Amino acid sequence: MKLYVDTADLGEARRAAELGFVDGITTNPSLVARQRTALEPLVRELAAILDGDVWCQVVSADAPAMVAEARAMHGWAANVVVKLPMSLEGLRAAARLADTGVRTNMTLVYSVPQALLAAKAGVAWISPYVGRMEDTGISGANVIGEMVDALAAQGLPTRVLVASVRGPRHLAQLARRGVGGFTMPLEVLLGLVGHPMTDRGQEQFLADWERAVFDGRSQGATEATTDQTGRVDA
Ligand code: G3P
Q: Domain boundary residue among 156, 173, 191?
């Protein structure tokens, strides 16, 4: 399972890289626009921060221009994955880039037929947007599960990267449906770490430990010592 952070912010990218278990960074034109900086130097810098993939989306309207953009992005860094929008032109661009060494993702995929067409055009990944599906009343988990099943049933190697992930429920629903990974904002990823029972359990463990150390000291009189782990050697 791949895990990406959805950001174009360099500070967030560094924090994501430092976690040690994030596979890369996904961006989109909206996220890049917020940075108020040119795309190429930003992508080069993101690619230098992480060993993993940096996903970067084309903004041209027609296939030849998308292909040219994609080739240029591929030249910026070896770890760039090019995102193409789901459209006739995006599909044509994907087909032209297949087998050229440029890794591609088709983004904004909302239906099983779109997923199948993208796979036929040769993209490595498709990105359905689970949160935005649910915003419109579509069951994201069901539709994305159907995409995974359809790709597998047809023997198509294209993998599904779930985007627009907004909380733990999306991972719980979709990780078991065979998706290839998830991308989400850093704050959403960090929000997956905690659980009230985890916190309460750890507090209890440490309280019990401290009590044992205290009791050991009082019982063992002056010889009682603790090693670096806090264990009592009396
Ligand atoms: O990459 C897509 C993602 O940024 C969309 O997330 O929560 O705005 O639907 P959201």
A: 191
Residue 30 Cα to ligand 1 middle (Å)? 9
Counting the structural domains of the chain, the total is 2
Annotated catalytic residue within 22, 42, 83, 147: 83
- Ligand 1 pocket: which of 9, 164, 165 to mutate (most atoms within 8 A of CB): 164
| pLDDT for the residue 224 | 47
| CATH number for position 167 | 3.20.20.70
pLDDT in tens, 158-202: 999 999 999 999 999 999 999 999 999 999 999 999 999 999 999
Same domain, 33 and 146: yes
Residue 148 is encoded by which pair of tokens? Answer: 């995974």
Please tell me whether residues 152 and 224 are part of one structural domain: no
- Give the predicted TM-score (pTM) of the model: 0.89
pLDDT value for 213: 86
Ligand 1 neighbourhood includes 129 CB (under 6 angstroms): yes
